[in-house]
Amino acid sequence: MNGDIRSFQGIEPMIGEHVYIDQSAVIVGDVSLGDNCSVWPLVSARGDVNFIRIGARSNIQDNCVLHVSRKSSRNPEGHPLVIGEDVTVGHHVMLHGCTIGARVLIGMSAVIMDGAIVENDVIIGAGSLVPPGKVLRSGYLYVGSPVKEQRPLNDEELAFLPESAANYVMLKDEYALNVHSV
Description:
InterPro entries: Hexapep (IPR001451), LbH_gamma_CA-like (IPR047324), Transf_Hexapept/Carb_Anhydrase (IPR050484), Trimer_LpxA-like_sf (IPR011004). This is Carnitine operon protein CaiE. By secondary structure, the chain is mainly beta. The protein has one domain: UDP N-Acetylglucosamine Acyltransferase, domain 1, CATH 2.160.10.10. It is 13% helix and 37% strand. It has one helix spanning 155-178; strands at residues 4-6, 14-15, 20-21, 26-33, 38-39, 44-54, 59-60, 65-67, 81-83, 88-89, 94-96, 99-100, 104-106, 111-112, 117-118, 122-124, 129-130, 135-136, 140-144, 147-152. The strands form 2 sheets. Strands 1, 2, 4, 6, 8, 9, 11, 12, 14, 15, 17 and 18 form a 12-stranded parallel beta sheet that branches. It has an 8-stranded mixed beta sheet with strand order 3-5-7-10-13-16-19-20. The longest helix is centred in the last third of the chain and has 24 residues, at 155-178. The protein is globular and about 45 Å long. It starts with a strand and ends with a helix.
């Protein structure tokens, strides 16, 4: 299904090719989804006071909330939400005004706050809290609340990151055979 795709102040979401958006998902305003993305049940992505960009082949799983921070005199650019390519965003994750690199796996119920930067090739454990402005270096596992660097990722984990995204591309294609996609 097409989900609930809404304009906000005249700005329509931009949807790439071969994107799956569950009918219960809500996509509002200045949101861009790259090719082969998937947005699963009950996701809310609200690009109203800033923009959201989601790279190709990324998946946003059930019950995620994606939002942004508005521009202000204290923060002239605000905090948009930028998600790179081949990112797996686990169930019930909250992403707010942060930057996520490519080939990142964000565990279930993690929270990543304004101004945080997650570099490429990172795993964030389930239930972790990434505080405002924190930078997570490429190639590491992070866990905890607040999140702490645990150890470097091994070769198997690094190889799994794009595989995880590819698995969701295949799954959304299976769904597309059974329901309408955008």
